[in-house]
Design goal:
This protein has about 90 residues and is mainly alpha-helical. The protein is about 50% helix and about 5% strand. The chain is built from 4 helices and 2 strands, in the order αβααβα. α1 (about 5-15) runs parallel beside α3 (about 35-50).
């Protein structure tokens, strides 16, 4: 995973996992200037509450057509911090 992929995944789901955050902080000495800027943006999004520290539920054997609606997933994995979309 790259910093850009982590940024897009976190932005699209609203979640960053503790493992991903740990990877981000431990690898920052080797980041390019663009990756540093992206990591700073992720930190700001965390501070603002737009991205939450939590976990993502992934079911690889569930077809997309049978997956729960996006609103149900948002309610089921609401992480610590202020509530989103309220």
């Amino acid at each position: 995973m790259t910093v850009g992929e982590l940024y897009l995944e976190s932005l699209s789901t609203g979640i960053i996992t503790p493992t991903e955050l740990s990877w981000l902080t431990h690898g920052q000495d080797h980041f390019s200037r663009l990756e540093e800027a992206t990591a700073l943006r992720l930190g700001r999004l965390l501070d603002q509450g737009d991205i939450q520290l939590g976990c993502r539920l992934v079911c690889s054997d569930t077809p997309v057509s049978q997956a729960p609606a996006a609103g149900v997933l948002d309610e089921g994995i609401e992480p610590l911090g202020r509530q989103r979309h309220r």
